Amino acid sequence: MSVLLETSLGDIVIDLETEVCPKTCQNFLKLCKVYYYNLNAFFNVSKDFLAQAGDPTATGTGGESIWSLIASQQGKQEPRYFSPEFVPRLKHRERGTVSMAVAPAIEGQGKGGCGSQFFVTLADEIDYLDGKHAVFGHVVEGLDTLYKLNDVFTDQEGRPLKDVRIRHIEILDDPFEDPPGLVVPELIPTRPPDNSTRIAEDEDPLATLPEEEAENERRKQAARAAALTLEMVGDLPFANVRPPENVLFVCKLNPVTRDEDLELIFSRFGTIMSCQVIRDKKTGDSLQYAFIEFDKREEAEQAYFKMQNVLIDERRIWVDFSQSVARLNTSWSNNPKMEPRLPRGGRGAGRREPTGFGGLDNLEATRRYREGATGDGARYGMVFDVDGGGRRQTRHARSRSRTPRRDRSRDLPRRSRSPRPSARGTHDRERRSSRERRSRERSDRRR
């Protein structure tokens, strides 16, 4: 009667003494049948002495007999251990002797005996174990695995630094009937029963990655660390946030290019939720870049491929996907004064608009600018917003079907296009005129 132990170091075949140790062999075989030993670790390995396993907790204090296991599953009480079967002729004479570990009697916890823990000897003539632990089998195949097990590196407590585990036990022959109430699990365990922090049994601690892959991994770790730092200081709502996929970043703009110019040009690719040229917070001058939010990611992708290096107001623009989450962070800031903007009017008045983050299914909602919304709710909440002086965009229903599917930059009205300044004085006069116009607009709003 034999069993096959498939370990992380190799296979071991154990021949059991079922005739002279029937109760011990029945306990061992039935524990194997219910996958009790699967993924158990050899938690105690002593060179030229023994290798011990069979404790799911890998501490040396766990484990129980099959009868105690069945009783606990049924909510009944049963002794944890059974009496060991000592046979005088079965001794620890040869390497590969398999014995049940006999637990000592502990005051207040009943008498000792055999549970589930067993060990395999790693040397010959260990006779001082005779009469103390119950021999019930011998290793007949896989002695080379025992040599490997004998040479593993261990810590001061005898636990291998790299886990050695029993991956599976195959029962080759079982002459015993199942105890009443024995239930075989439908699924084989896939996770170790103990919380080991050692080197995994399938992990190579000496393995090295190619230089390019190692550099990429270092950069990813540095990026994760930086993101975690930003989350701790409140600049990011959470470390795994990533920019939305429907927002484009447009730079190298002409300083005279306005929000409505960009919106008119990019609207041929789809519905634009927001379009704003970012301006200096103090002076209101254009910083020559903008963010354009589309309703769908596919529309943003089409605009990205079609508008790269297009001439707008005599400047070749550069288009890329946004890498910033500054706009999204306003509603997740740790500052309680930073509240989400609400539309003042229209259908969305009085309701908090959803704001989401790209990459997470439960936060994919994008803030919608309601038809007819005005005021602060229609602005694009970037960090460079001009307080009171920026253009406050109002969403009006317009027919997109009238917009031809071609570059509209050359078909814009003359007032929306600026001739290229021919001299420094002309450019200065235009800037002064622009500032005076914005000043008049502010005065009109206040009145």
Automatic annotation (TrEMBL):
<keyword id="KW-0413">Isomerase</keyword>
<dbReference type="GO" id="GO:0003723">
    <property type="term" value="F:RNA binding"/>
</dbReference>
<dbReference type="InterPro" id="IPR029000">
    <property type="entry name" value="Cyclophilin-like_dom_sf"/>
</dbReference>
<dbReference type="InterPro" id="IPR012677">
    <property type="entry name" value="Nucleotide-bd_a/b_plait_sf"/>
</dbReference>
<dbReference type="InterPro" id="IPR000504">
    <property type="entry name" value="RRM_dom"/>
</dbReference>
<keyword id="KW-0697">Rotamase</keyword>
<dbReference type="InterPro" id="IPR035979">
    <property type="entry name" value="RBD_domain_sf"/>
</dbReference>
<dbReference type="GO" id="GO:0003755">
    <property type="term" value="F:peptidyl-prolyl cis-trans isomerase activity"/>
</dbReference>
<keyword id="KW-0694">RNA-binding</keyword>
<feature type="domain" description="RRM">
    <location>
        <begin position="246"/>
        <end position="324"/>
    </location>
</feature>
<dbReference type="InterPro" id="IPR002130">
    <property type="entry name" value="Cyclophilin-type_PPIase_dom"/>
</dbReference>
<dbReference type="InterPro" id="IPR035542">
    <property type="entry name" value="CRIP"/>
</dbReference>
<feature type="compositionally biased region" description="Basic and acidic residues">
    <location>
        <begin position="364"/>
        <end position="373"/>
    </location>
</feature>
<feature type="region of interest" description="Disordered">
    <location>
        <begin position="188"/>
        <end position="216"/>
    </location>
</feature>
<dbReference type="Pfam" id="PF00160">
    <property type="entry name" value="Pro_isomerase"/>
</dbReference>
<feature type="domain" description="PPIase cyclophilin-type">
    <location>
        <begin position="6"/>
        <end position="171"/>
    </location>
</feature>
<feature type="compositionally biased region" description="Acidic residues">
    <location>
        <begin position="201"/>
        <end position="215"/>
    </location>
</feature>
<feature type="compositionally biased region" description="Basic and acidic residues">
    <location>
        <begin position="425"/>
        <end position="447"/>
    </location>
</feature>
<dbReference type="InterPro" id="IPR035538">
    <property type="entry name" value="Cyclophilin_PPIL4"/>
</dbReference>
<comment type="function">
    <text>PPIases accelerate the folding of proteins. It catalyzes the cis-trans isomerization of proline imidic peptide bonds in oligopeptides.</text>
</comment>
<keyword id="KW-0539">Nucleus</keyword>
<comment type="similarity">
    <text>Belongs to the cyclophilin-type PPIase family. PPIL4 subfamily.</text>
</comment>
<dbReference type="GO" id="GO:0005634">
    <property type="term" value="C:nucleus"/>
</dbReference>
<protein>
    <recommendedName>
        <fullName>Peptidyl-prolyl cis-trans isomerase</fullName>
        <ecNumber>5.2.1.8</ecNumber>
    </recommendedName>
</protein>
<dbReference type="Pfam" id="PF00076">
    <property type="entry name" value="RRM_1"/>
</dbReference>
<feature type="compositionally biased region" description="Basic and acidic residues">
    <location>
        <begin position="404"/>
        <end position="414"/>
    </location>
</feature>
<feature type="region of interest" description="Disordered">
    <location>
        <begin position="331"/>
        <end position="447"/>
    </location>
</feature>
<feature type="compositionally biased region" description="Basic residues">
    <location>
        <begin position="392"/>
        <end position="403"/>
    </location>
</feature>
